[in-house]
Design brief:
Helix content: over 70%
Number of helices: 3
Structural class: mainly alpha
Radius of gyration: 15 Å
Order of helices and strands: HHH
Distance between the termini: 41 Å
Largest sheet: none
C-alpha cells in the first residue's frame, strides 16, 4: 500500500494527469489504446497481486520487486493485446 491506498488504485490515480496531458497531444485511436492499457494494468495488479495475495520474495529489494511487477504486467498486457487485435482483424 502507498499512502494507505492499494497499489492498483495508486496506479490509476497517477495515470489520470498523464491521460489529461495525453488527450491534448495524442490522436483518438492512441488515446483509446492508452486508456485500455492503463485499465488492463490496474486490472492485473488488482486481480493478480491484491485479490490472490501473490507474494514474490525477492529478498526485500523494493526496486527489484517493482521492476519485476512492471515486466510481468507488460507481458500479460501485450499477450492480451495481441489476442484482441487478432480477434478484431480476423
Amino acid at each position: 500500500m502507498l499512502f494507505g491506498l492499494p497499489v492498483s488504485m495508486g496506479t490509476l490515480l497517477v495515470n489520470i494527469p498523464l491521460l489529461i496531458l495525453g488527450y491534448k497531444m495524442l490522436d483518438k485511436k492512441t488515446m483509446i489504446y492508452t486508456i485500455y492499457g492503463i485499465l488492463m494494468l490496474t486490472f492485473w495488479i488488482k486481480n493478480f497481486f491484491e485479490t490472490y495475495h501473490v507474494v514474490i520474495d525477492i529478498g526485500g529489494d523494493r526496486l527489484l520487486a517493482s521492476v519485476f511487477l512492471v515486466e510481468l504486467s507488460q507481458v500479460l498486457d501485450s499477450g492480451l493485446y495481441l489476442f484482441l487485435v487478432e480477434q478484431l482483424e480476423g
